[in-house]
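One-letter codes give the sequence; the fold follows as tokens. An example follows:
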Amino acid sequence: MRSREEMVSLVIKRAAVFCLPSVLLAVLGLSGCKTAPPPDPQSQLIAKGRDIFFNETFAGNGRTCGTCHPAENNFTIDPAFIAALPKDNPLFVAEFNPALKENFENPALMREFGLIQENLDGFDDLKNKFVMRGVPHVLGLRTSVASPGGPRTGWSGDGAPGDGSLRSFGVGAVIQHFTKTLNRVPGIDFRLPTEDELDALEAFQLSLGRQQDLVLPLRLKGTVPKRGQAIFLDNSLGKCNLCHVNAGATANFGGGSLGNANFNTGVEDLPDQPARLTTQTVPRDDGFHTPGDGTFNVPPLVEAADSGPFFHNNAIETIEGAVAFYDGDAFNSSPAGLALKQADPRGVGIELDGTQIVAIAAFLRVINTLENIRQSIMLLESSLSVSSPEERKRLLQRAAAETGDSIRVLEGGGLHPDAVAHLRDARRMAEKAVRSVFFNRKHTEAAIRDQKKARAVLVD
């Protein structure tokens, strides 16, 4: 049996971890836990933006920004995620709101291919003037929006009205996707975001994911990913780094940085596009501006492997298929492909063999996993410093989900089974931390250690 002194010592230790109620501490003659300092103004703005992003419907049809950009699915949606949603989810509003039954969404294409209807050329002819696009993730926006020609948002770089900025992106989203009827009358079908709400939404979106680009090459350990990185950086072979500098969204083609540039890569010319194999009408997507010039902007590649399907029309399912696209006729006959060929001293575009395609994809899978590990560790460490049980649970669940992505990305390429084993341990510890009260910190710290072990397998 423990003595009174031992019992007091045990309570002190547990109080330090779990911040026991001050009433219990007072009974034991102890002082209460110190309260955390108030958050700084930027953190408060980001928190406000998070609440708006996931909870604000703007008096519309029930959708929020998080309806199409859910945090638990890398801020995007795909057919597998859509299939698991309940029938009354606001994503399916066109299926149960008679006012939006026609010319608002195409439920068949949404459910089968994850495509959303967009009226980028205006709302005057809803039946004929529209495009079908996938949902781009909103991770790493701080590194992928800036361009000398103005901000680039959305697949074609013109996803926001007005000044085209990320701050204005919310305005376009509400008008396009939140309306109660096809009349789209502000104050009746929805309310427009206020200036303060737009500021908060921008701050939150800019806080998501990476805050800076990678610096390649990385000291990778895997044989195939290491070779993939070399091909990626070789401007006479893979040529990937010309348009995706450091696997980001910045182009450096033609002798200078173009920022987040637009290119016509021939994606619209791909034969057998999945959506066009159906009986549904899928107009040609004309890309940037109105009328469009056929170009689409450069997306970052660090987050690519776990955020497919790929390209603006979700035409290709796997990261290997996305890399292989650049070895095909559609790309090499496109304006971008011909420009690469013309710039090559040998007059060669992109010519890759099957093993080289797989190697580049392996490299992209590994850098995606490294980013997931970074985010997972950040979430786990953040969970140790919050006082709210609900917020701690949210952070731990996000960390577990990110770790699940890491596992799927590596296993999908048959890569690093030893790292996968550590990641499985990390996910199990994070899930135990969610359920635990007394050993939450212990399990969380164990999950952090396992994440670091997995990272050490991938890179020096």
In short: Strands lie at 116-118, 131-133, 262-263, 296-297. DSSP finds 18 helices and four strands in the chain. Residues 354-383 form the longest helix (30 residues). The first strand starts at residue 116 and ends at 118.
